[in-house]
Amino acid sequence: MIYFEDLEIGREEVFGSVEVTREEVIDFARRWDPQPFHLSDEEAAKTHFGRLAASGWHTCAMTMGVIARRVVQEQQAGLGSPGLDELRWLKPVYPGDTLTVRGTVIDKTPSRSKPEIGSFRTRTVVTNQNGIEVMHFTSIVLIRRRPA
Can you give the pTM of this predicted structure? Predict the structure, then answer.
């Protein structure tokens, strides 16, 4: 089990990768972000995307899936997240892209009111198969402290 005390500021971790499929881009868009450039090649061609592009929210969901699978695999004593800061979609994500998710712990703080938990912030960077950064954000994560 990985606890608050095990986290090292400055440590980078590669959480894993995910391939973006055309079917998932369209399915996600139909349900959650039905803008024409996420649904149709023809409509996307009329925009700065030039072709069908994934919703930024889909990119977030895929990223969360990669992170969550890794956290469960590592048995991190996580307790969820109160949110994130500085979310930026920097480049379009297209069907056929392979996204890689990395995170670096940038700080950690023991809770003043709940001594059994702490929080940490991670700078998360998502790159495509060409190493181009497509998204980044800073997440805030709650985590258990090591039992006495």
Answer: 0.93
